[in-house]
Amino acid sequence: GDVSGEHAEPNDRKLLYEEWASYSVFYKYQPIGLVRKYFGEKIGLYFAWLGLYTQMLIPASVVGVIVFLYGCATVDDNIPSMEICHPNNNITMCPLCDKVCSYWKLKETCATARASYLFDNPATVFFSIFMALWAAMFMEHWKRRQMRLNYEWDLTGFEEEEDHPRAEYELHVMHKSSKKDRRSQKKADDEKLTCRDRLPAYMTNLVMMLLMIGVTFAIVFGVILYRISTKAALHLSSNPSHVLLTVKITATIINLVVILILDEVYGAVARWLTVLEVPKTDKSFEQRLIFKTFILKFVNAFTPIIYIAFFRGRLVGRPGNYLYVFESYRMEECAHGGCLMELCIQLSITMLGKQLIQNNLFEIGVPKIKKLIRYIKSKRQAFQEEEREKRLQRYEIDHFLEPFAGLTPEYMEMIIQFGFVTLFVASFPLAPLFALLNNIIEIRLDAKKFVGELQRPVAARAKDIGIWYNLLKGVAKVAVIINAFVISFTSDFIPRLVYQYMYSHDGSMHGFVNHTLSYFNVSNFEDGKQPLHLSYVDICRYKDYREPPWSSMPYEISKEFWAVLAARLAFVIVFQNVVMLMSDVVDWLIPDIPKDISMQIHKEKILMVELFMREEQGKMHMMESMASAGDKEKCSGNSHPVPLPRQRTTPQPHCNKANNI
After folding, report:
1. I need a surface site. Which of 121, 168, 607, 642 has the fewest CB within 10 A?
2. How far apart are CA 50 and CA 46, in angstroms?
3. Beta bridge partner(s), residue 506
4. Please, are residues 401 and 455 in contact by the beta-carbon 8 Å criterion?
5. Which of 213, 215, 279, 224 lies closest to 247, judged by CA?
6. Is 40 left (phi over 0), alpha (psi -120 to 50) or beta?
7. pLDDT in tens, 385-414
8. How many CA atoms lie within 13 Å of 115's alpha carbon, on the beta-carbon side?
9. What angle (nearest 5°) sits at the alpha carbon of residue 408, between those of residues 407 and 412?
10. What is the Cα gyration radius of the chain?
């Protein structure tokens, strides 16, 4: 219908609807000036930030696709996966679970090994460094863009007014002072809430935050148990390779559903905890709420991924001496291609699922349903005639729209996405591309929501995006550390390098697969743990660096393990420091204020000083002329009642002489 509103300049809303809130203009720049004019600076800054972030994702996506294509192009030249897939490869692997699982051939993991290489090749290390520098560039570009907008929107001299205390805060202070009054019979004027008053709320906050994080961990642990038990059950009935894939994907979908549900729960819990704290001002309330929500949602989204990246397959033990959960479930192992492939599946399903479901279902569907419910309720209450309903004014139609609930959900969604793009980019180079495609739709979706689905918010002035900038900076710093650990501990990059330069006879990767597998004598299985299927296997292999059964110290950790571990830790330290240093250099090289803006501000300051000096000089001249005119009047009053024309030009000293006579 018609979108020109009675409550605003009709053309602005119509123009925004046509030129901004439409999917057909996705390739155009946003009319940020018009958005700011209609919605105010705070919302204008959000869309400016979202636009710049989406723009910056273009080079990241291009490089990510090139890295992925490089993996696709070189997969046939990758010696380790060629060795695994070789028809003559006859390596027998130890069972993946007790009793029900049988021995299996390494070549069964051929497809997984080839797929893993797409995300675990030398180019992913380069891409991690590139993305760390990209994050630093993005932060610097935003600072410059923000400065330009501040200048254009006349906010350079704007200082936020001191917030008035919230009504809830005033009420608590009043209760406190009334209690004191009853005790001391003396009125306290400057009463305020101290840390001691808030201590119960702080303790509740701490306990509840830890409890919520504990719930997240418990759910991850529950999904682990589901994977272990389902894997064992399905192994009895079907093909082992299909079993693994089925269990991986179903477990990831369960994780996704739980993440989406807990996101809503954690949002409500964070608000309740912030209300308990009784912050003094609205700004303080908003910052505390954002911080709590961010911590809970961040932990919720990334705990399953961190488990797969850093813990899965590390706490397994070895054949004959496995670690067990509840004495019956064996801890999970990674497939031979490493956990990187599983990490990639988890990341892609969680990222795509969160974006598609939260965007399409929550952002479009929920407001429409709420609008419909409000409309039905108001129809019942008002008993309006059909003729009048047909002639509803625009402001009456707007009354049924969803009230504006703040920008926090929009920023939160984007900052979690920024985490997906930067934190585990070493294992998933296509993340920036997925984020870019989502954001192209997200900008127009948010625009549609603001123009057509939400009541027009009260315009608010702001110089910057506030606490969100610090959170972004924090995520970018953590990303460097996590990527260093993903490359060194989750991928096979370091073991490959160590093998190539320390153990390979010809400096190639031939023999790498055999080097990473240890031997196990099947007669050393504990009673009741060996496979039920009869087989004629004497030695099976498992992925670890351990001594063979015929050595003097059977199954002890070998020296190769320590060499690889030392190389991994060294890589983490070097990578982290080099990349952080490069990010700081980028930060230092790019000035925060664009040159043309700083020159313009400098010129304006000079003009102001000149104007001020001119005004001061004018005042001085005026004062001097008034003083001299006063002296002349005084002088002419003493000597002659009617001054002659000739005496008007008489200099002051002469007048003084006449007076003296």
Report:
1. 642
2. 6
3. none
4. yes
5. 224
6. left
7. 454 555 666 766 777 777 788 888 889 989
8. 15
9. 120
10. 36
Q: 324 pairs with which residues across the strands?
A: 330
- Over residues 533-539, the mean pLDDT reads 76
DSSP of 10-21? HHHHHHHHHHTS
Query: Token pair of 118, please?
Result: 């797409």
Q: What number of CA atoms fall less than 13 Å from residue 375's CA on the CB side?
A: 14
At 585-626, the pLDDT tens digits run 988 888 888 888 888 888 888 999 999 999 888 889 888 888
Q: How far apart are CA 267 and CA 661, in angstroms?
A: 95
Q: Is 40 helix (H, G, I), strand (E, B) or coil?
A: coil
Distance in angstroms (rounded) separating the CA atoms of residues 306 and 481 = 13
Query: For residue 413, how many other CB atoms are within 10 A of its CB?
Result: 21
How many angstroms separate the CA atoms of 229 and 98, rounded? 11
Please check the confidence at residue 173 and state whether its pLDDT lies above 60: yes
Burial of 203 (0-12, 13-18, 19+ CB in 10 A): exposed
Place of tokens 């369960």: 254
CB 487 within 8 A of CB 128: yes
Tokens of 451: 């123009």
What single string gives the DSSP state of each residue in 598-619?
Answer: HHHHHHHHHHHHHHHHHHHHHH
Q: Which residue has the tokens 């504006």?
A: 404
How many residues belong to the chain?
661
* pLDDT value of position 637: 56
Two tokens at 76?
A: 């046939």
At residue 568, does pLDDT exceed 70?
Answer: yes
State how far the Cα of 516 lies from the Cα of 495, in Å rounded to an integer: 8
Strand, helix or coil at 191?
Answer: coil
The pLDDT score that the predictor gives to residue 635 is: 61
pLDDT in tens, 203-237: 998 999 999 999 999 998 888 888 877 776 776 66
Residue 18 near residue 3, CB atoms below 8 Å: no
B/e letters for 587-622, b = 16+ CB within 10 Å, e = fewer, are eeeeeebbeebeeeeeeeeeeeeeeeeeeeeeeeee
Name the phi and psi angles at 535, rounded to 5: -155, 155
404 DSSP assignment: P
Higher pLDDT pick, 481 / 646: 481
Contacts with 491 (C-beta within 8 Å, 6 or more apart), sequence order: 120, 124, 338, 340, 426, 427
Contact 647, 636 (CB under 8 A): yes
DSSP assignments along 485-554, one per residue: HIIIIISSHHHHHHIIIII-SSSSSTTHHHHHEEEEEGGGSPTTTS-SS----SEEEEES-B--TTSSST
Note the pLDDT tens digit of each residue in 91-140. Answer: 888 887 777 777 888 888 888 888 888 888 888 888 988 998 999 999 99
End-to-end CA distance of the chain: 96
Question: Is pTM beyond 0.85 here?
Answer: no
If one compares 227 and 648, the residue with the highest pLDDT of the two is 227
Orientation angle between helical segments 282-306 and 195-235, nearest 10 degrees: 20
pLDDT surpasses 60 at 382:
no
The predicted-structure confidence for 249-269, as pLDDT tens digits, reads as follows: 888 888 888 888 888 899 899
- Tokens 């127009």 belong to 444
Q: What is the pLDDT of residues 459-503, one digit of tens each?
A: 888 888 888 999 999 999 999 999 899 888 888 889 989 998 988
Helix (H, G, I), strand (E, B) or coil at 325: strand
Output the CA torsion 418→421→426→430 (10° steps).
Answer: 180
Residues 6+ apart with CB under 8 A from 128: 425, 426, 483, 484, 486, 487, 575, 579
